[in-house]
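User: Please run a holo structure prediction.
Assistant: Happy to. Please share the sequence and the ligand.
User: Here you go; the ligand is zinc ion.
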Amino acid sequence: MHHANKNSPAPLILRAVFSAAVLLLSVFHFAPSALNAQALDQLYTAAPAIEIPLAPPPQNATVYNAAPGFNVFFVSVGQGDSEYIELPNGENVLIDGGPDSSETGGLAKFLSQKNVTRISHVVLTHPHADHYKGLQYVFSHLKVENFYDTRMDNTGTSADEALRSQAKTLGVNLVYPAPGDKLSWGPGGVEAKVFNSCPLAVSSGDGKAVNNCSITIRLAYQNASVLFVGDSQSDVEARMVETFGAELRSDVLKVGHHGSAHSSSDPFLAAVQPKRAYIEVGQNNYGHPTQSALSRLQKAGAAIFRTDLDGTLEFPEAASFGPAPLPAQ
Ligand SMILES: [Zn+2]
């Protein structure tokens, strides 16, 4: 009920026009090798997913209506994190799985509603139950190609080891990204850069230490960018600001640690400058999201969205799939 009907006629026509334009551009770009059957086949299978505006948007355009090939879902999973991303090249990404490993859990329901049976890239930001439990469901029921993990061993549980050995048994390709790495989630125009992780073996039962290993990734496509920070806390935020500075700037922020007081620090928000802030949160005893984090986000100029109030949220919003804004001139 939160989204306008995607299938209204005007957007469909525009999508068709865009797809046709992209096909033409692609053929020219790849000529002459594109004329072999395999390349043509790839073009046609890729075409529906790649929909770009014909003209670059004007500078004052809102950021959230020009990247329809790049869709991010902040899945409502209760108190925990799970973000599902459709990439313009037809691949998909799942960042964390939320706190429920059952077939009736929020993530399982979301994936089956969307008929997702295969995930190209699964990321476990850090080994806490509100992030990995849903991945147990994913590894058991879906085909996973690549698994991005930290080498943080949470000594408070053996469930993280169990998940990791399940991935190994299944033969999933395992990646330990390091800060500064660019992930090859193209071709298709999506840039994926890692700003934080724990690629070297480390172990702790301390919640903060485990949080601070969170794989932090910025995805950028055309004029839209989204920063996923897991449960990174303010000291890691400070380190990222020091190391990467303006590279952190992103239109959309997946708010750190469910809106905890110890994340979303002022200097970090000053570097990110988010226009939209999405909080993955459910009923909890931690006071998430905290008033202090909400105030800092508001002060930074971000519109705040919460899965506990609004259910699963989508960026760009389905309602904004309509015409791209006309060029200013
Ligand atoms: Zn968490």
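Residues 10-56 form one domain.
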